[in-house]
Amino acid sequence: MAQFIKTGSEKVFRDPVLNSIRVKDQVILDLIGTSEFQRLRRIKQLGVASAVFHGAEHSRFSHSLGVYEIARRFANHLAQFYPSQEPGDGLWDVNERLVLLCAALLHDVGHGPYSHTFEHIFNTDHEAYTQSIILSPDTEIHQVLVKVSTDFPQKVASVIAKTYPNPQVVQLISSQIDADRMDYLLRDAYYSGATYGQFDLSRIIHVMRPYAGGIAFDDKGSYAIEDYVVSRYQMYVQVYFHPVSRSFEVVLQHLLERAKFIYDESKHDTRVNINFISPTLQPLFAGDLTLQQYLMLDDAVMIADISAWRHADDPILKDLATRFIDRKPLKSIVITDETRNLLPTIKQLIDSAGFDTRYYTAENDSFDLPYDAYDPKVKKPRTQIELMQLDGSLVELSTQSALVEAMTGRVFGNARFFFPREMLVQHAVDDIMAPIYSDFQRYVHNETLVAPK
């Protein structure tokens, strides 16, 4: 077992969010040095959001290091104050430390470029790829993990899959309050300049308590937990659901859909040239990626092709690529159940203005729950946040916080309709589409779809 082998000295990564990221275990350093983990330097944490928040250029590499560091602090706290004394006592088993740290470090290693848009178009699953990278004997990551023990890669992968037998380990990596969420909220707030993403990380760690069913928090720390939940809500409203970020996701989605359409057409029409897609991306469009081909994909590979598509023969692909590269987002308006019936009418106007509505319009719904209590009847029940009282009994967070109770189960966000910004041009000169633009604008008021008077 290499589990307790330390480096010759502690390695420290300077970090603007967590100050210091400390590594003593050789296996962690070795994992960081693998080609699969280094690839995360070339994948932005927030995807297209940097087109809106210019500082948000941070990578999944820095986020993954941050998740590792927060998990390390979790483990240190639990080992110092709540070490298990005997099997089944519900306290922290110090032998779980390394599997926790490795799972924290590797939890995002399977992400592709522009992760969520990428997954939607090409039907990939970053968690499944993460597990494959960990379990495949051909990866450097697997070769590092298997040196700990032959079954260690499977243990780490099972934490990602949420099947690991110790619920404490799983919950520290994946729950409504975990190392992953804590780091991305703090890190995304820092790089986007959004101060409302801040919360008291040290206090939350201080009130953390293990129990047989997972992780709870001292009820004296309820205000720190409450602050975390509110911070998460604010970040989703102000950053993650920003309408211009969503616009660029729509442009990217339709851009990739158009490229895939042309690629698929080439199978039936030999006159269609597929050389506009680089050899690195062609297996992706063919839907026949090996793991090694998947690992060749990153933001740089994707942006190189998109940049080249600005000179494509296909006018739609060419225009969408130009809009994406040169930051020309679509515009959007809020739609409601009461006004959704107007969409066919305004789509017809957009079509009359010369835009293919398959590629220049979209309905995009962004909704989320700031917090939700556990409900076993839903498809993906959430692990609720438990507070531990003096007698050791557990109570659910919203029963102790009026603010969280008001937010529990309440969906926030909105539905938007995206369309070409040209439709909002006013007083168009020498444009034969001007009457169509004016007609369209009768349906827009205060960035909301309305019935014209």
Automatic annotation (TrEMBL):
The protein's matches in SMART domains, at most eight in alphabetical order, are given as: HDc
InterPro entries hit by this protein:
dGTPase-like (IPR050135), HD/PDEase_dom (IPR003607), HD_assoc_2 (IPR045509), HD_domain (IPR006674)
- What's the superkingdom here? Bacteria
Q: Where is the HD/PDEase domain?
A: 56-194
Alphabetical list of Pfam families matching this protein: HD (PF01966), HD_assoc_2 (PF19276)
UniProt name for this protein: HD domain-containing protein
What is the protein's species of origin? Weissella sagaensis
